[in-house]
Amino acid sequence: MFKKMKAWAKNLKRQIFILYYACKDHRVPWYAKVFTACIVAYAFSPIDLIPDFIPVLGYLDDVILLPLGIMLALKMVPKHVLSDCEIKAEELMRNGKPKNWIGGSIILLIWVVITVWAVTKIYPLFS
């Protein structure tokens, strides 16, 4: 069972890298790029929609929502683009993924802005 879960996680990681390259490809329609970019950003983000410390529900996004989003995004991308992106993703996984500190900083900044906005909107309701 552990080997099966490990293979599933590796395949999920591969699909995220495929989507990463797909959202950069000019042959992908704009609506698919937007959706795909959101899925990839969420997958790479260290912050989850549902925090992992919440029993059972905490892993719901990692086990159900993220794979569902990946599946939908893969269906939006044209097949010929997917085949090109699969080759690039396999190469990336063999060579090790690059670190993108600028992208990570932007994602962190977006989450900070969302958190500050949410706190300023919700806090007055309880005062």
UniProtKB/TrEMBL annotation:
Keyword line: Membrane, Transmembrane, Transmembrane helix
Residues covered by the DUF1232 domain: 32-68
Keyword match Transmembrane: yes
Signal peptide start-end: none
Keyword set includes Membrane: yes
Pfam family, one: DUF1232
Membrane topology: Multi-pass membrane protein
A GO cellular-component term linked to this record: endomembrane system
Transmembrane segments: 101-120
UniProt superkingdom: Bacteria
Cross-referenced InterPro entries: DUF1232
Localization per Swiss-Prot or TrEMBL: Endomembrane system
Protein name (database record): DUF1232 domain-containing protein
